[in-house]
Design goal:
By secondary structure, the chain is α+β, with helices and mostly antiparallel strands. The protein is about 40% helix and about 15% strand. The chain contains 17 helices and eleven strands. The longest helix is centred in the last third of the chain and has 18 residues. This is Sugar ABC transporter substrate-binding protein. Belongs to the bacterial solute-binding protein 1 family.
């Protein structure tokens, strides 16, 4: 077992989890565990991997994984691997059904918001001591930690930065990106005033996933939404109210569009109609694909502005071994292989997933791109939602209230009061 002391999310952060299906609740760990350390993981047998392994992975990673695993097969010629790619939109239900039926794979990519739920269903094995976690980004380690126990390992990470048109900023007399909240708002207003500017910045006016931008503002202001112990909600605080009011000001001041058309961010960014937005590393290829040759030189990225701290959302995915695997030693050997720096660098080259291992960022294949270095800087302070089994249910309530704030001018204090009440009704799942 790898037991991790409970770390302050004010410094590191933890990844949230989807709400557990009530029909599967009986599969959870006994209540007396109390979210503490699980029973020690059995050691992994020495020697090469053998036998057959089933692996489930989602999206582009699932499609690309067989190519990455050729090296593992060369090192372990007596192992047979079967990779099943799953669509993200149906993967969660397929996993929970397989867990209930006892037909889960040996190894699986685990969505970053599923960890606590899967642990509550007794579906994941604790990480063996033979797999060291000290080189992973601390926030990513907290993301595989439920209670005081790590389950699986971080596989890849992502965080969010501010994208901006450098050429338009220079035309507005701005040579350096802002570093604080006031500077970000002032820059968005200045860029909106340029000839092609319709809006200053693209922000999500509530709805699914809007909490991923608002919650980092709360963290940046010293706020949080769950107590340190993870047993009560803390939406109603002056810090959170100020953060939500700041977000609302972009809409009330006419800087951000309260009714943006879906799927237009790249085009609007390239045209200059909306010269700023907040997103992850995947948008680099998207905007450069629309902008064509030379567009990479026209835009830059910078870390989230500071209030008390510079905080951003920490996401990504983990890789773990499912309880009941009939070949668990070989399964953990595969997880160890995917955790090597050289393999994470190879994965970055293959699918551009950012390595979860800090040492992998020292390789010039990763560090040579200055935009990726900005993501690296943000990863050092990136935070993520609490590791509670009901987080996605609570987040959906928060999203709905954010929409009322942005579109209906609901007072932030009222929105937080409503979210607090709804969250308490749902509970933390403990």
């Amino acid at each position: 077992m790898t037991s991790i002391p409970r770390i302050s999310r004010r410094t590191l952060g933890g990844l949230g989890a989807a709400g557990a299906l009530s029909a599967l609740a009986a599969c959870g760990r006994p209540e007396e565990d109390g979210g503490g350390a699980a029973d020690p993981a059995a050691p992994v047998a020495e020697g090469p991997a053998t036998g057959s392994l089933t692996i489930w992975a989602m999206g582009a990673e699932g499609e690309a994984l067989p190519e990455l695993l050729t090296g593992f097969e060369e090192e372990n010629p007596d192992v047979t691997l079967e990779v099943t790619p799953l669509p993200w939109d149906s993967a969660h239900d397929k996993f929970t059904s397989a867990i209930a039926a006892g037909t889960a794979p040996d190894v699986a990519q685990v969505g970053s918001t599923w960890m606590a739920e899967f642990v509550s269903l007794d579906a994941l094995e604790p990480t063996p001591e033979s797999i060291a976690l000290d080189d992973f980004f601390p926030g990513a380690v907290e993301g595989v930690t439920v209670g005081d126990t790590a389950y699986g390992v971080p596989w890849y990470v992502e965080t969010r930065l501010v994208y901006y048109r450098k050429d338009i900023a220079e035309a507005a007399g701005i040579s350096e990106p802002p570093t604080d909240w006031e500077g970000l708002a002032a820059m968005a207003k200045a860029l909106q005033g340029q000839p092609d500017g319709k809006w200053g910045i693209a922000l999500q006016p509530g709805g699914d996933g809007s909490w991923q931008t608002v919650l980092p503002l709360c963290w940046s202001n010293g706020g949080d939404v769950v107590s340190e112990a993870g047993d009560e909600f803390t939406f109603e605080t002056p810090q959170n109210e100020e953060a939500l009011a700041y977000y609302q000001s972009y809409f009330t001041d006419g800087i951000a569009d309260p009714a943006p058309a879906e799927g237009t961010t790249e085009q609007d960014f390239v045209s200059g109609a909306v010269p700023m937005f907040i997103s992850g590393p995947w948008m680099m290829a998207a905007v450069e694909g629309v902008g064509g040759d030379g567009f990479a030189d026209k835009y830059g990225v910078f870390v989230m502005p500071v209030k008390e701290t510079s905080s951003s959302f920490l996401g990504g995915a983990n890789i773990g071994v499912l309880q009941g695997s009939k070949n668990r030693d070989s399964a953990w050997k595969l997880v160890e292989y995917l955790s090597r720096p050289e393999v994470q660098i190879q994965w970055f080259e293959q699918v551009t997933d950012m390595p979860a291992l800090q040492s992998a960022w020292e390789d010039e294949k990763v560090s040579s791109n200055e935009k990726f270095e900005a993501f690296h800087t943000q990863l050092e302070t990136a935070l993520a939602p609490p590791t509670i089994a009901t987080w996605e249910q609570v987040a959906a309530k928060f999203d709905a209230q954010i929409e009322q704030v942005c579109k209906q001018d609901l007072a932030p204090a009222d929105a937080l009061e409503a979210t607090q009440s709804e969250a308490q009704g749902i509970g933390t799942g403990a």
